[in-house]
Write a structure and sequence with these properties.
It is built from 5 helices and 2 strands, in the order H-H-E-E-H-H-H. The chain has helices at about 5-10, 15-25, 40-55, 60-70, 75-110; strands at about 30, 40. The chain has a two-stranded antiparallel sheet with strand order 1-2. Keywords: DNA-binding, Repressor, Transcription, Transcription regulation.
Length: about 110
């Protein structure tokens, strides 16, 4: 079991962010000890690491919420790949839209 400070170090996420994720129900409720301090196990750290990864890839909190709720940690690698593939498709669509905007701007500049 880990304290929030240790979990923060292991997941490379500030303690305040972990508390925020718990407050907005992005992560499952964290277990507490007799003194009411949060205690994290390895599965909690895995989820925090996954969230950190998704955030670095530009996923929104809401997309992460949906993805986390669909993940069965026993099949995490397979699920993570599917989630990342879906996110990649979304980014490619956004790139297509941005490229069309750039093309329109370039046409207007030439005029």
């Amino acid at each position: 079991m880990y304290s929030i400070q240790k979990a923060s170090l292991l997941a490379q996420i500030p303690s305040s962010t972990i508390r925020y994720y718990e407050k907005i129900n992005l992560i499952p409720p964290i277990k507490r000890n007799k003194q009411e301090h949060r205690t994290f196990d390895d599965k909690d750290i895995e989820i925090l690491n996954l969230i950190r990864c998704f955030r670095h890839l530009g996923m929104s909190i809401e997309d992460i919420r949906v993805s986390i709720s669909n993940i069965n940690l026993e099949y995490e690698d397979m699920n993570t790949k599917a989630i990342l593939f879906q996110h990649k498709k979304k980014l490619e669509e956004q790139i297509g839209i941005l490229n069309s905007y750039i093309h329109e701007i370039e046409e207007k500049i030439v005029i």
